[in-house]
Design a protein that fits this description.
Oligomer: heterodimer
Distance between the termini of chain B: 6 Å
Helix content of chain A: 25-40%
Largest sheet of chain A: 7 strands, mixed
Largest interface: A-B, 110 and 119 residues
Strand content of chain B: under 5%
Number of helices of chain A: 19
Structural class of chain B: mainly alpha
Chain lengths: 595, 310
């Protein structure tokens, strides 16, 4: 092939730059330049103008043609604006495409949020955060098991009743090893669940039975005090066997591949572009649902884009980050905030041979830490609270909040004592100088600010060198699991509304205890909390766990994460919560007085 | 011509095979664990997952299975969207990227040719200086800045007029396409303007143009047939890679304008270490790029009589 016209510097992918234009230009300028006064230039100008007009017309025609084709892949969004009173529609943006609307496999917040709107389990949380009857109209729980009586008018979106068998099938599917559900462990309180998940028993051996259509009996593996709270979790939702099988592995992958029994149904789902929820006319409690449509025609993780949409009146709600918060304040927007239930902390590596396994070293770090300073000066975002314990402030205790009943010991910074502890640590470790400690973190603007703060703090107060190891999320987890770190900035979000969702984190057998902390006394308290049915005994155990974590400096609490958002003043009744669908629009409504 | 096409296609297949193998090796060499999640899975749950994705088998066997499936055009199931096949993801989102890409490239090519001719015509005078300044600006400013400024412009536009002139984000109608395709095509347009300008300057001083003028051809004909047609050739050369670059490189624009394009899924897959989606999209994009380069070479043979394809 004769390839004389292919200039190699133009054909590669990074084709911007490397233009050899100046050379050409200098050569040309030696000869003759275009004289725009002559007839050729005038003619050329006319031609260019004609071409420009033709180009614009052609471009618009092409757009028209392509838009016909793209109706299939797009959302056709933005027709109604943020809220529409006539059709009772709200328009909001989603931060991610939900990977699947399949409770047996979902693991992410977006999926669980949508599931919370379109599906319903035996129980649900009401607007004030209390457990309320849902598919089950009443229930009994004792040490050996539980019985749920299903309501007669609970229907699937195709009109057939929701029966006890649908729960049996769904729960068996979750623990079935072939499903490979990551949340299978949350079913382990049910008899034989763990054995089935480990392939030691067939799925039919699961301790859950349908007595007729409307009675569901559950046998427990061991007594459990919070099973009612567990069944409100999305993984416990019902799935109808005949429909599930008819989808041949695509259950929950598309709007038509899902069967609904919640307050809303998905009527349109264009992947990556649009999810539209409409009120489910067959929902038993449909009179309590006041919105007709929740339209989500924008899917983007770019918070700036969503704020722009909010600014132009296209969406009713936007989450803010630090940068947009300033804008929002300047524009006089009404900024809301809430706590999303997660706790973040510094977690140590306790593997033998690690310097951080030394108690006095950890104590020294604990004695210079000040989560108040971190939150107020470094993070400086509303909604964030300084953390003082592994157990966040929203958890309920026996009567009042757990925090009120079992206030954690407050460690006030004491630099002299910290230095004394550090000297002790050096002596115990037989070291002249503590070698640099590796601080493993995610790579985000927020974590960067924090890790630099910690680096400076530990250097300034204790003379310790901190080496920051920034990794993408998956790689941070991999390094935590393999133990390739000294200190890690980690966090935990709740799965269910009981202190145990945090309480068993540092049990020696817990796979999430990636620092391998091992303390028989803590293990013993976790076992008490798991198996006891007496609320007081359980909360005492959590109180002891909390004290062990502080005494032993197992973690250095950093913050309880907050969320900052703006919301259309005409939209009311949106529920923000730590556990379950968040935000929850089930009880939301449009304020007619502001129409 | 036929033999040449067959030869190039065979070469292309080997290239794609190489891309597929390199991606596979890179994927397994990269640190990190695709199955890791914030909730640590127990040994048993992990085993179930590994079995489902075939990660428990030896790497060579995984490679064999991967190649066998690839030859059948099957990219497997996504790791993050567990009920969706990678083929479906590509099939649903590539048309969006392609639509956006076609519009941007048409915009860029038209603009580049027009501005390029204009600047050549007004060489070293005010319009040339102004346009070339803007061109340098458009080449240097990264697309995420252009996208953010473009969107802010739309917000301001809408609030000035008091109604939605152009939607701020979203996808699906004519009005949704305009802003993102312009934003996406701007850099390429600026680049093509420079290319067109220098190639035009070279042409206007060529001997055959002098001949044409001496013959007394009408000026419009000289410009259209002799100058423009010849000056456009280098632009066509870079169009192939530019189409591939634009179609695959629209990630930021897709994110800012909430467009469901494939670029977004590709980048998110990389962040999530979604093996199957990464491998599927890389091989698909690789094949697409190889194909576009072949097409451009073939087109070249057709439009430039001096090039013969052997």
């Amino acid at each position: 092939m004769k390839d004389s016209h292919r200039n190699s510097s133009f054909s590669g992918m990074p084709f911007f730059g490397n233009l050899e234009e100046p050379i050409m230009e200098s050569r040309v300028s030696d000869t003759q330049t275009v004289n725009s006064g002559d007839s050729l230039s005038r003619a050329a100008l006319r031609q260019i103008a004609l071409l420009a007009v033709a180009g614009v017309v052609g471009f618009v025609l092409l757009m028209g043609l392509l838009s016909r084709a793209s109706n299939l892949t797009g959302s056709g969004a933005g027709a109604l604006g943020a809220v529409d009173f006539k059709t009772k529609t709200i328009t909001i943006a989603l931060e991610e495409e939900p990977p699947q609307i399949d409770g047996t496999r979902a693991t992410d917040t977006v999926s669980f949020r949508i599931l919370g709107h379109v599906m319903e389990g035996l129980l649900r949380y009401d607007a004030s955060g209390h457990l309320a009857p849902a598919v089950a109209e009443r229930w009994e729980i004792n040490a050996g098991g539980a019985t749920f009586w299903l309501r007669e008018n609970a229907l699937w979106s195709d009109g057939k009743p929701v029966t006890a068998r649908d729960f049996v099938f769904a729960w068996q599917t979750v623990v079935d090893p072939a499903t490979a559900s990551e949340y299978a462990f949350i079913m382990y309180p049910i008899k034989n669940a763990e054995a089935i998940n480990n392939k030691k028993l067939p799925r039919a051996a699961l301790g859950v039975h349908a007595i007729g259509d409307r009675e569901l009996r559950v046998e427990f593996e061991r007594p459990i005090a919070f099973f009612d709270k567990l069944v409100a979790f999305g993984v416990y939702n019902p799935v109808r066997e005949d429909f599930y099988r008819s989808r041949q592995g695509r259950y929950g992958a598309d709007a038509t591949d899902t069967l609904y029994n919640g307050p809303f149904t998905i009527t349109r789902w264009v992947h990556g572009a649009h999810v539209r929820l409409e009120k489910n006319s067959r929902y038993w409690n449909r009179d309590a649902v006041r919105l007709d449509v929740i339209d989500m025609p924008y899917i983007t993780s770019d918070t700036g884009a969503v704020v722009n949409l909010y600014k132009s009146g296209a969406v009713a709600r936007a989450t803010l980050d630090k940068q947009q918060l300033g804008d929002a304040m300047r524009l006089g927007w009404n900024v809301g905030r809430y706590n999303d239930g997660s706790v973040f902390y510094l977690d140590f590596n306790f593997r033998p041979g690690r310097i951080t396994a030394n108690h006095n070293l950890r104590k020294a770090l604990q004695l210079v830490s000040d989560s108040g300073e971190l939150v107020n000066k470094v993070i400086a975002l509303p909604g964030y609270q300084p953390a003082v314990s592994l157990f966040p402030a929203w958890l309920k205790g026996v009567e009042k909040s757990f925090r009120q009943e079992y206030p954690p010991e407050v460690i006030t910074p004491d630099y002299n004592e910290a230095r004394r502890r550090l000297d002790l640590a050096k002596k115990e470790l037989g070291l002249e100088q503590i070698p640099p400690l590796v601080l493993l973190t995610d790579d985000s603007p927020l974590t960067n600010r924090q890790s630099e703060y910690f680096q400076d703090l530990f250097k300034r107060t204790l003379g310790l060198e901190i080496r920051i190891d920034k990794q993408i999320f998956k790689q941070r987890l991999a390094k935590m699991t393999s133990g390739d770190y000294d200190i890690v900035m980690a966090g935990w979000g709740p799965d269910f509304d009981d202190p145990l969702t945090f309480g068993d984190l540092f049990a020696s057998w817990n796979a999430n205890n990636r620092g391998r902390y091992n303390n028989p006394e803590l293990d013993r308290q976790v076992r008490v909390a798991q198996s006891s049915l007496d609320p007081k005994t359980r909360m005492d155990a959590f109180g002891k766990i909390q004290q062990i974590l502080i005494d032993d400096a197992v973690i250095l609490p950093s913050y309880e994460r907050g969320r900052v958002y703006v919301q259309d003043s005409r939209l009311k009744g949106v529920v923000y919560r730590a556990v379950g669908a968040d935000p929850d629009y089930t009880n939301a409504y449009l304020d007619e007085s502001r129409q | 011509m036929f033999a040449y096409t067959v030869k190039r296609l065979l070469q292309g297949i080997i290239t794609v095979w190489f891309i597929a193998t390199a991606t596979f090796v890179a994927m397994h060499a990269v640190p990190g664990d695709p199955l890791a999640n914030n909730r640590a899975a127990s040994e048993e749950i992990r085993k179930n997952l590994e079995e489902r994705y075939g990660l428990n088998r030896p790497v060579l066997e995984q490679y064999g299975v991967y190649m066998r499936n690839l030859s059948r055009g099957d990219f497997g199931i996504s790791f993050t969207q567990r009920n969706r096949r990678v083929n479906d993801i590509i099939l649903q989102h590539f048309p969006v990227s392609a639509t956006l890409g076609i519009l941007s490239i048409v915009f860029a090519a038209l603009g580049g040719i027009l501005w390029g001719s204009l600047t050549a015509l007004y060489r070293n005078r005010l319009p040339d200086v102004v346009i070339m300044f803007l061109v340098i600006l458009a080449i240097s400013v990264p697309s995420f800045v252009v996208a953010a400024i473009g969107q802010l412009g739309l917000v301001t536009l809408n609030s000035t007029f008091g109604f939605t002139v152009l939607p701020v984000a979203g996808w699906g109608t004519l009005s949704h396409m305009l802003a993102p395709s312009i934003v996406l095509g701007l850099g390429t347009m600026a680049f093509l303007t420079r290319l067109m300008r220098s190639s035009m300057l070279e042409i206007v001083n060529a001997d055959f143009i002098r001949t044409a003028r001496a013959k007394g051809l009408p000026p419009a004909r000289i410009f259209l047939r002799h100058e423009l047609r010849n000056a456009i050739l280098p632009v066509i050369t870079v169009l192939g890679p530019a189409i591939a670059a634009i179609t695959t490189g629209g990630f930021v624009v897709e994110l800012v304008f909430a467009i469901p394009g494939l670029g977004r899924f590709f980048v998110e897959a990389v962040q999530q270490l979604d093996y199957t989606v990464i491998m599927g999209t890389t091989v698909f994009y690789g094949a697409f790029l190889v194909f576009m380069v072949i097409v451009v070479d073939l087109v070249y043979g057709v439009i430039d009589p001096r090039v013969t394809l052997k």
